Amino acid sequence: MARVIDATHDPAPAPTADPSLAADIDALCRLTGTFTLRSGQVASEYFDKYLFESDPALLTRVARRMLDLLPEDTELLGGLELGGVPIATMVSSLTGRPALFVRKAAKEYGTCKLAEGPDVAGRRVTLIEDVITTGGAVRDATRALREAGAVVEVVVCAIDRSPAGENPLADVGLEVRPVLTKAELDAVRG
Question: Where does the record place the Phosphoribosyltransferase domain (predicted)?
Answer without folding.
Answer: 79-160
